[in-house]
Design brief:
The protein is of the alpha/beta class and 367 residues long. The protein has one domain (2-364): FAD/NAD(P)-binding domain (3-Layer(bba) Sandwich). It is built from 9 helices and 17 strands. Strands 3, 4, 5, 10, 11, 12, 13, 14 and 17 form a 9-stranded mixed sheet that branches. Strands 1, 2, 6, 7, 8, 9, 15 and 16 form an 8-stranded mixed sheet that branches. The longest helix is centred in the last third of the chain and has 18 residues, at 320-337. The protein is globular.
């Protein structure tokens, strides 16, 4: 019998396991479908740009963590190039991201979890609530094992099995498919590109250089013709940036969620705690989730480490800080996703599309 079982060893789950192991003597189990303990890279890849935002960097610093150089990839990005195909405008503004390898980042956080935390590989496919504990079944390469735990944590991402199973009636954020493809790149593109094109998606698309490769990605509504929309994006970006995007190296996909109201955040339900994207905590403007994964796991560790008489109430109160941040981003959203407002913003050279106001330059795409 475990005191705590954490489903999902992404940034939220691994960070929570590390903090709880440091602060308590609880018996903890950390479960993930990937082989994060193995030395070799896994075959499961999440469609993630791997950019660590300033807010995420601050959360790492607050917890005394630094990023090893081995995780970083070239080039480091200090500029965002915004391409608005709808309004035929471009803009640049300053923004400081850490460009990193996502899988290596997950492995880095996973290996910070102390050895006395038991780590299991497998897919959780059945969870039952008993009188005083939870009973879980997980499958790994055809083998099934059962575990019991007193406390259950959902850190299993935007498509959370636990949230779908135990909170099916809770308000859910709008769901998207994040699709990105890798191409060889022979030139340097030392900036992150944010692309707006309503013919492709009502969200946004992006390019990110990773060493000698270029990622082209987009977030598409679930009911959209995914392959046709991506091909439209690829052809337009190829022509506009004047780079070949024909020799595809690999494709990655994942579910992401975009909150439209803070009542779509779910921190606790029937004794299950939710962290990171499983709670709905991701930016509604950019889908950035690292900072909220680190922040929510930090708060939950504090709640479960014996610092609160009522951990659920304590955790929800702490997470109001996250809800306020996300509400502020929701207020900013029209500046990014309303065609008319975005046009005025870009023409006025005000980078309201970033998290702060900066001046840059604008040009007409036809110029």
């Amino acid at each position: 019998m475990y005191d705590i079982a954490i489903i999902g060893a992404g940034p939220a789950g691994s960070n929570l396991a590390r903090l709880l192991a440091q602060q308590t003597q609880l018996k903890i189990c950390l479960i993930d479908k990937r082989s994060l303990q193995d030395a070799q890279p896994g075959i499961r890849r999440k469609a993630c740009g791997g950019l660590l935002s300033p807010d995420a960097q601050k959360m790492l610093a607050r917890q005394g963590l630094t990023i090893p150089v081995s995780i970083l990839e070239d080039p480091q990005l200090f500029s965002v190039r915004t391409i608005d195909f709808d309004n035929r405008l471009e803009n640049h503004y300053q923004r400081h991201y850490l460009n990193m390898n996502r899988e290596k980042f997950d492995r880095f956080l996973f290996h910070l979890v102390p050895n006395w935390v038991e780590k299991k590989r497998g897919v959780v496919f059945d969870v039952k609530k008993r009188e005083f504990h939870w009973s879980l079944q997980l499958r790994d390469e055809g083998q099934i094992q059962s575990i019991q735990t007193k406390v259950l944590i959902a850190a299993d991402g935007a498509n959370s099995f636990l949230r779908r199973t135990f909170a099916p009636d809770s308000p859910r954020p709008q769901r998207y498919i994040s699709l990105q493809k890798w191409y060889p790149l022979h030139d340097s593109m030392p900036y992150y590109t944010g692309i707006f094109d309503s013919n492709v998606t009502d969200y946004y698309s992006w390019t990110i250089q990773k060493d000698d490769h270029l990622i082209l990605g987009t977030a598409l509504p679930l009911d959209s013709p995914v392959h046709e929309r991506f091909e439209l994006l690829r052809s337009r970006v190829e022509a506009h940036l004047e780079i070949p995007l024909r020799k595809e190296i690999r494709t990655e996909g994942a579910f992401i969620e975009r909150i439209t109201h803070i009542n779509q955040l779910l921190w606790e339900k029937d004794g299950i705690f939710f962290v990171g994207e499983a709670a709905g905590a991701a930016s509604p403007t950019s889908a950035e989730g690292f900072s909220y994964a680190l922040q929510s796991s930090f708060y939950l560790a504090d709640a479960l480490a014996g610092n609160a008489k009522n951990p659920a109430r304590f955790y929800k109160r702490k997470c109001m800080k996250i809800a306020i941040k996300l509400l502020a981003k929701q207020v900013k959203s029209p500046a990014m996703y309303h065609l008319g407002i975005r046009k005025l913003v870009m023409k006025s050279k005000i980078s309201a599309i970033s998290t702060s106001l900066n001046t840059g330059f604008s040009k007409n795409i036809n110029d």
